[in-house]
Amino acid sequence: MKYTLLLALGLTILSISCSKDKTDPPTGKELLLGTWKQSRVLVLYTPGKTVLSSDTIKTCDANNNWTFDTGSDYSFTSYKSSAAGCVVRNHRAGTYTFDEQAQQLTLSNITGGTRPDIFNVYQLTKKEMWFNLGATNYDGDTTNYLQILVLTRSSKK
């Protein structure tokens, strides 16, 4: 009886301590939360997702930022050069959805815009988000390549 009680107590303690160690990985929407800034543009050859070029954004565009909050609202602010330095070019706000299965980010604009923008997300981590800006003819041949915008997290919500 004494051993049964000790065994039961030991198993209970073990199961409680092990269950605390398990955490579910964050969902795509949880990874989106926070503010992201443009950092570089990639050109990818799609069959193997081979990076053909990577250009760091050094102009005022590097200040362009997206903020996603927990309530499915987003804002986007873009910047341009002026005599006074980098100034706001455009500000949009709206709602967003993220389809985990399709890896698609849909932005619906509240402030100016009639149709949603849909982006294929190629990578989403705690530090970076890659999404498709469209096809580009990188080297003048008939092959279209993907142009990918890379965002880097600047703050977490």
From TrEMBL:
Task: Name any one Pfam family assigned in the record.
Answer: Lipocalin_4
Q: Which residues form the Lipocalin-like domain?
A: 32-129
Under the heading InterPro entries, the entry gives:
Lipocalin-like
- Know the name of this protein? Lipocalin-like domain-containing protein
